[in-house]
Design goal:
Elements (H helix, E strand, L loop, with lengths): L1 H32 L1 H26 L4 H55 L6 H20 L1 H31 L1 H11 L5 H40 L4 H11 L6 H17 L2 H26 L8 H15 L1 H22 L7
Length: 353
Amino acid sequence: MEHAHHHHAPRNDYGRFIATILLFCLLAAAGYALQHTISCFLLSWVIAYLLDPLIVRAERRGIRRLYALVLLYVIMGLLTVFFLAFIVPAITISWNSFVLDLPTYIVKLKQVALDWKSRLPDRYGSDEIQWLIDKASAKIDTAAEKTGFWAYNFGTSIFFNLFNIVLSPILVFFMLYYKHTVIETLISWLPEGRRGQITEIANEVNSSIGGYLRGQVVVSIIVALLATIALFALGIPHPIFCGAFAGAASILPFIGVIIATLPALFFAWFKFQSAAMLGQTTFAFALIYFVEGYVIKPLVFKEAMNLNPLVTIIMVMALGETLGFWGILLALPIASAIKITWGHFVHGDFKQR
């Protein structure tokens, strides 16, 4: 009888393992199907995460949470009015200019491809190179035809996301107002024997995620401002667009630096067609990211996540494909949370005492 008990135990473990995998697959499928709803929720959650330290500081000064929230929303409202009055028009003008110039850029790329084709010597392998150039030219023609359709879809997407922008402040308010109630409810659901242990791990994960999100927002804003100023000084077209793109690209680990420079290099080449200007643009971005890596990040991020590069890239790719921008933004915090939890598991903190 005892032998039969030991024989069936591994099957139960395998059953739990398979059930866990199926549950994760189901959650992933549901997340993909409800990506717009989840995107709105994640936007609200990130904003609440960023604003919560301000509410906590106000509470420490004796201000009730409701009054602190009202004061915070009044300040945010004034900042929003300033943003809509001064920043949005500048961004809109830059975006409209970029959309109007986009067909010109595409035609210029096609001309360059044709010039390269005409200059190819009649040597071994030139037919294959010409075939590649013909394929690239065909792709450029297709892109030129679809430019208007692409711009329309992008504008439609922005209009659709306005609903999220309007709904997010409401969700943020309730997330911040009912924060303590939600936390107390979740803690009450935990087993009493594990409650203190799980709460301690959750606080460690919360500290890691909160520090990363707040730090990354600060880093992205600084990179965007520095890149915009540098491109203005160099006289490169669409500096605001390129600067915002550089700030967003700084979220990506390892390859973000390379991706951020591509639009600026393209516009520099298109306007000046000078190797010297390409070199100046590259030097400007190299200097910005040197300052970011060795000055800004050490000051902003008090604690490094120390994640494995391979794991980091896999998490960014997987969550980015599933949740888009929010998946890329939250890939490192999620990986850090898994690492912290796994570390406690390896050290035997989850063993029954």
